[in-house]
Amino acid sequence: MTDTALPAASGAVQPNRRQTKLEPWQDPGEAPYVRIEGVSKTFGAFTAVDDVSLSIYRGELFSLLGGSGCGKTTLLRMLAGFEQPTAGHIYIDGVDMSEIPPYERPVNMMFQSYALFPHMTVEQNVAFGLHQDRVPGAEIRHRVTEALELVKLAPQRKRKPHQLSGGQRQRVALARSLVKRPKLLLLDEPLAALDRKLREETQFELVNIQEQVGITFVMVTHDQEEAMTMSSRIAVMDAGWIVQVGTPAEIYEYPQSRFVAEFIGQVNLFGGRVVEDAADHVVVAADAAGTEIEVSHAGSVPIGTRVHVAVRPEKMAIAKDPPADPRNAVQGTVDEIAYLGNASIYLIRLADGSMVRVTAPNVTRMTELPITWEDAVHVTWPAFAGVILQT
After folding, report:
1. Coil, helix or strand for 94?
2. How many CA within 13 A on the CB side of residue 257?
3. Lowest mean pLDDT across 194-198, 240-244, 316-320, 361-365
4. 3 state DSSP class of 128
5. Which conformational region is residue 239 in: left (phi greater than 0), alpha (psi within -120 to 50 degrees), or beta?
6. How many CB atoms lie within 10 A of CB 373?
7. Across-strand partners of 317?
């Protein structure tokens, strides 16, 4: 962001106006770096990818997120050229990839298994692709050194893969992918082989490296937390379709369907009918909860429409005393408690047997929880916390 002084009018002093730079996907004048147009892929009677269109911009770390069999890896393999679309076109930097074989595409792929050569040293593994391309020796040495310094593996350059930790092997595979300076780097579940702690550390390392090199990354993952942590934007896939594209905050805070709301993080869903449609809010008469739920800034929804209201557990509060406002409140009994250190998760059983999940931060040290099992409690949430879902 930059401060820009606007020209003064009629001698008056004008205040500085802060201008926010548009992200490339928000700028109508920005051309997509990767453009996928109406791409489908069938294997016999099975449709793995179904009429997908997608724009990815230069310098993004873009994630394809979904469960097993949703089509994300097939789409990644079509970008790499390992699979050919049954229908549609893929463009990279404005060039149609339809007739271009994998080895001639400006693309490199980092596989989930890393596929390192066990008999080669770290630097030999990294240099392998450059030797295949007949790059001059001096240039190979320079680029390998540059890549190993980038991933902080220069001191381990003479080691073999079996002498490295899982995180180090992952970085060797990344250096080998980056050393050829592709326009597009494809990552297939790049952190799946790492343990949880190392995976969390490596997520930030990978993001920092991507920002340094400025190469567009497209990553496939089934791990919601991984996608949320690392991505500039996410495409959520289901059954070969892209069901929503957005930034991590947009995907989490404003899911466009019940599938996305349930797939990304934890969510409470209240079914009901719209009974009020005002300019700045919607009111839903919830079925099971026996309450009216007000949702602010929900857009116009016709009265009588069947909807679900999605509320994230961390946006709810739990207390023993009843609230002053009966809207956006349910009453129940504490059924389960999970103490996680930084937060506690409460499962509240309502009168009809349905469960509500509440996540409460543990802001103070305590040996005894202020609310415990079998306590009668009230769960409340603000109007802005809910999202109306019609699908």
Report:
1. coil
2. 11
3. 194-198
4. helix
5. left
6. 11
7. 380
- Best CA proximity match to 296, nearest among 365, 387, 222, 209: 387
Give the separation between CA 100 and CA 78, rounded to whole angstroms: 11
Query: Which residue has tokens 């449609």?
Result: 277
Helices marked H in the chain — which ranges? 72-80, 122-132, 137-150, 166-178, 196-213, 224-230, 248-253, 258-263
Identity at 75, one-letter amino acid code: L
Question: Taking a C-beta distance cutoff of 8 angstroms, is the pair 309, 273 a contact?
Answer: no
Residue 64 bridge partners (DSSP): 220, 235
Backbone angles phi, psi at 223, to 5 degrees: -90, 110
Q: Token pair of 297, please?
A: 């800034």
Residue found under tokens 């080669």: 120
- pLDDT digits over 297-349, tens only? 767 788 999 999 999 999 999 999 888 888 899 999 999 999 888 888 999 99
End-to-end alpha carbon distance in the chain:
37
Neighbours of 58 (CB within 10 A): 16
Where along the chain do its domains lie? 25-258, 267-389
CATH topology of domain 267-389: OB fold (Dihydrolipoamide Acetyltransferase, E2P) (2.40.50)
CATH class, range 25-258: alpha beta
